[in-house]
Input
Amino acid sequence: MKKPELLSPAGNLSKLKTAVLYGADAVYAGGEEFSLRASAGNFSLDELALGVEFAHSRGVRVYVACNTVPHEEELDRFPEYVKALYDMGADAVIVSDPGLIMLTKEHAPGLCVHLSTQTNTMNSQACRFWHGLGVSRIVLARELSLSEVSGIRRAVPETLELEAFVHGAMCVSHSGRCLLSSAMTGRDANRGDCAQPCRWRYALVEEKRPGQYFPVCEDDTGTFILNSKDLCMIEHLPALIAAGVDSLKIEGRAKSEYYVACVTGAYRSAIDDCFEDVDRYLAKRKEYYNEVCKVSHRPYHTGFYFTGPDAEKQHTSSSGYTRSYDVVGLVTSYDPATKTARVVQKNRFVCGEELEVLSPLWEPVSFRVTYMEDAEGNEIMSAPHPEMEVRIRVPSPLAAGSFLRRERQM
Output
């Protein structure tokens, strides 16, 4: 079986570099136009060019999301935009609109076209149709089971790549095509500006009892009836690979840099173990799962990949996140002469604390902070100020880009 690509989100240039550093084979990013993540930092064309240059220098591919459903007045700007992407060396565009496929083929004929999951492609005939229009990869609908994915793989040409989501937030709407945000807030989800009303808490109000709210209950605790759990397939990678998926996609362009590092690193290690020593992967599955639990997340689920009673239990009873670790610092450099790491503070920490290191090598290690000094070299006992620079003594070398984190006391 072919080793699948690990595709990570890049909400801005810093996150792109983090994804590359932590082992992504490819990243997907959005520009300031035509992207479905308006809340992400997103890229100017100059920043995209820098990102492409950085990724390519390390053998990593860059796909640019142009996956909005554009209105008529937006179409005139797309030819120049897609030509700029082609000229800077982007590896593919991700689109959901047939018109943008045609414009890409006309104005950037050498640029690969990937079909967004927004197009909700769910069968082999649809795959063949899009492939016939020049699409080289289909991002399959998230509503498919693994057996359906496997059937599609057998029925479509080998020249057509299949991509599937493996981790991240799920949308209650069919393949993310939602009108709820537009109807309730005027913010168009299909143009990248979703207000996420599916995450809100709803109740019933009886006409003659204004101000009295009755929960919409599924059990005695109530429920957020539109609020879906997060997808996590890190314990089921052999099944995804056996189904013939060419690319495993992590959702999260609006998530933090730490999220990108932690989840990319865990899936990188898990995929590599699958192919180098499957027994090692099987023995470490719980470790991988525990690692991705160290980011802020909703309860995890396997989505629609597996059939059975649990497949219907994808809603979660709260819109809140589980958060068991706090990031306290980002390592920017290491001095072997003094065995100290230069750290930018993200949350307050003090001498004597036990911290855990998340590094691009993935295997977390713990140590106790025994010495700390400020940027002027004065010994200090705590790092209380946001973004302050400190040096701490560490027992072993730390790579730039490593995160220092602390388990929350529950």
User: Anything to note?
Assistant: Residues 325-407 form a domain with the Elongation Factor Tu (Ef-tu); domain 3 fold (CATH 2.40.30.10).
